[in-house]
Amino acid sequence: MPRLTSFTDASASFAESDFVILGVPFDRTTSFRPGARFGPDAIRQHSWHYESYDLETGIDLAEARVHDLGNTEEFGSSEEMVRSVRDELRPIYKEGKIPIVLGGDHACAPPSVEAYPEDAPSLGVLYLDAHLDFRGSYLGDARSHACSSRRMLEKVGARNIVVFGVRSVSREEMDDNRSLGMSFVTSHEIARDGIQASVQRALNMLKTERLYISLDIDAIDPAYAGGTGTPEPFGLTPRDVKFVIDQAAPRLAGLDIMEVSPLFEHGNTSALAARLVREAIARVQLSRRSR
Ligand code: MN
Ligand code: MN
What we know:
Layout: E1 19-24, H1 39-47, E2 66-71, H2 78-94, E3 98-103, H3 110-114, E4 123-128, H4 148-156, E5 161-166, H5 171-180, E6 183-186, H6 187-193, H7 195-205, E7 210-216, H8 238-248, E8 252-258, H9 268-289
Parallel strand pairs: 1-2, 1-3, 3-8, 4-5, 4-7, 5-6, 7-8
Helix pairs in contact: 1-9, 6-7, 7-8, 8-9
């Protein structure tokens, strides 16, 4: 039986790694069902049952250089969580590695974008979510998971973030966005136009050299990913999200997968999240090989 405390095939040291996994077991800003604090370890656990050879790309993931840093501290305020994620992420970017952050609620994602160095190639964010997450502050907390796209916009600028798969928004968020101008592609538009055209549209909006993918697992339909805090029908399919990752991989600067709450599932959501991490690693490897 393998040790279940680290992600599968994460056998590289930090120094020799190309990909660095960090768990953030923090869910203090969830607004409905909690449990995302158990996400990182559930995702790790489910990563172990996959074959290392990837049928589609021919990449052997056992050869990818992946390091697992473990988890940040479990308890503390959202400010402390933000500080520790930033501190962990800075050296990862500085050394040209790709961080893969496992949440935790979506509050854990903005600090991993904020840690991106100012002098590095320009960064755009592809923000996959059922929700717009665009509140200035929620229940008195500007670091709530309901504010995460807004915090990222403040780092990268309105032209460099696109929310993808959204289907739930408040009137206040729409009013705020009239002046701030963040782009979004709704799940209804994706159903209408098809995933290929929709991803192309989103990528055309992001002119940056590098891309950061922030995946709130609730972007995916609860039929596939019900293990989450605020499930929302009419979502993306797992294959839609795989397609997004495949297309973005050549420019990928970082990835997070947030809001997996294993309390509300039988393993399918955690298994999917683990598989999407594997997909991202394989696709980045493939794009480097064919360069
Ligand atoms: Mn979210
Ligand atoms: Mn969401």
